[in-house]
Design goal:
Elements lengths: L2 H18 L5 H8 L3 H16 L5 E5 L4 E5 L4 H7 L6 H13 L2 E2 H8 L3 H11 L2 E5 L6 E5 L1 H6 L6 H15 L1
Antiparallel strand pairs: 1-2, 3-5, 4-5
Helix pairs in contact: 1-3, 2-3, 5-7
Length: 174
């Protein structure tokens, strides 16, 4: 396998495992990575070896459902200290996916994170970290983080956030 392709594939598989936050079969990984099964198998094996030989808080594990990226068990106490008691890891990963995109449709987020995202979205709306706005065609919702998110996580006032406010205001006027 070409070294640059191997690195790109491993990074893609790593991103897939992080974003999905569930165990995935090799065939699912191959589908998301847009490669064949043997290539996906080589990529996951290389990635597992990389994680096994680096001093990382994360690891790739094989479960009966497939492969997943997770925090090493020795950091379990840290999770309890850092993650707000009222938001679970799944909700935080969903929140991160929304924040990284700055604006994402609910249907795209569910495709990315799985059906558990519906409950997590509701939880995040109730906590005030995200807001939902119906798309103009009425089939889905736009999701974006709120000012509470930026204050709580102490993120800077990003230009993309300002653009979304302008876009929302112009949409409301029309």
């Amino acid at each position: 396998m070409d070294e640059s392709f191997s690195t790109a594939l491993k990074q893609k598989i790593e991103a897939i495992l992080y974003l999905k936050a569930i165990s995935l079969s090799i065939s699912a990984i191959a589908d998301y990575a847009e490669c064949d099964l043997p290539t996906a198998e080589d990529g996951i094996i290389d990635l597992i070896n990389d994680y096994a030989h680096r001093e990382s808080a994360l690891e790739i594990v094989e479960t009966k459902e497939g492969f997943s990226l997770r925090l090493r068990p020795e950091f379990g106490d840290l999770v309890q200290k850092i993650i707000p008691a009222n938001l679970g890891k799944g909700a935080l990963k969903t929140l991160a996916a929304i924040a990284l995109r700055s604006k994402i449709s609910q249907s795209e987020l569910v495709e990315l994170r799985g059906s558990s995202a519906y409950q997590q979205i509701q939880e995040l709306v109730e906590e005030g970290f995200i807001k939902k706005r119906r798309q103009t065609d009425g089939r889905s919702f736009w999701l974006q983080v709120t000012d509470k998110f930026h204050q709580y996580f102490e993120t800077p006032d990003l230009p993309s956030r300002l653009n979304l406010k302008s876009e929302a205001e112009s949409t409301e006027k029309s």
